[in-house]
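--- STAGE predict ---
source: upstream dedup step, 1 unique chain passed
mode: sequence only
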Amino acid sequence: MVIILTAGISSSSSDTTPTPAAAGGRCFTSIFSFGDSITDTGNHCHILSKAGRSANNCLLPYGETFFHRPTGRSSDGRLIIDFIAEHLGIPLVQPYFGGGSTVDFDGGVNFAVGTATALDSDFLERRAGVKVTGTNVSLNVQLDHFRRLIPSLCRLLYASDCNNLFRNSLFILGEIGGNDYNFALSDGHSLKQVQDLVPLVVGSIISALKEIIELGAVNILVPGNFPMGCLPFLLNKFPSTNAGDFDPSTGCLTWVNEFVEYHNDLLQTELDRIRELHPADMNIIYVDYYNALLRIYQAPKQFGKWKDPYPTRLFV
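--- STAGE serialize ---
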């Protein structure tokens, strides 16, 4: 995870001069994060629990290798956000729905929720006919939770000095948007129909970025999407006997990864436009999850123990 994050940031950061906190002049005091299951440290499970429900990642074997219990993370151990917090010397970021009081959030707040979409679920269904399973926990809903928490957060932790709090905080906006596409592809929408969602999804991310900047954020990580063509459920969803549908270096679906590259390219273009509108002391960093993770798919043996479960690749 540390390798992925370092590679992703170093290859894709903005050209602006980092603020003192980012440059090492002072440490970040908090992390505020938004996104989906890639970043969720327990919110989805807390939401389900209150409704008398559960999900696989609320149970073992999730969490078994590090926490030795399920924490609501979609991992057997830690997530990227956990490694960031540990590197910065900040307590692991608490999920918004898991905190008992504002004092629990002195190291920041995680608003990310598994299954979250960038676009509101009712908009997705009305505009594109995409059905979203579960509660609407979109990016806009997460921002609503953040807005409501700000007064008490600033009052209790920073003597009402929100500007100081946010200037010393790291904001992580995403990864988000992958579920919008996953739901659409799972519903049987065509590639063209899913591509039409990309400007809307990226627009939602940029709108959220503008809002947190307006609120005072100056150090912001904005990750792109992963190579979704390597996801097992999509490989299973779109079987093919045509070897040309797959990248020979990874076995991943080429057309899906090309679609993700379109999303990431558009996101980076919009981030460049935002940077031009703001002073040099603002640090907006695009995190290249796509190419960082692709390195692992291309050469898994270089990143740990590996035994190929399919020694003879069959495209069926």
